[in-house]
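Following the same procedure, the fold was encoded as tokens, giving this record:
***
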Amino acid sequence: MAALSRFVVLISGNGSNLQAILDACASGELAASVLSVISNKADSYGLTRARSAGIEAVHFAKLENETRNEFDTRLANYVASKQPDYIILAGWMRILSSTFLSVFPNRVINIHPALPDTFPGTHAIERAYQAYQRGEINHTGVMVHLVPDESVDNGPLLSTEIVSIHPNDTLESLEARIHILEHKLFVNTLKTLIKETTH
């Protein structure tokens, strides 16, 4: 039996993508284990999800007077101590500097609810919905990509899927549909990645 792939998951919020990963690990769909869930926000519901699954849940706060690089060095040291195969960004809302990324080349994976080169950064679904209402686009999507550098929601693509926007969509219905796809795409992409790296 092949050893399980080792994940550290970074989150900032609700953690619904984290939950999809935890469920897939628990069911054996993903040949992986989550070693630690780290959030830069103390009230992230994702930390509760991790605790419920019996997984280490860490609130990793920026210290007073700590520079971005100092924070990223401290975070990289902590993550490295877990010896992960991959660092999964599941709604992590801080831009990681090269101080962190250089420690884990080709091992940091992000999901973003938009297609490549469209709507980087926050509120991507909302911005896509507004663009649809202005008649600029008729679809949006989801992508999973590697994070090689500090550019936001941009990097070598691992997978992507299109989501049509329907005339009767509300922002809420579009968000719900995208989140369902995110969970599926993230798990499937990680599954493929594990297969490719262990064979």
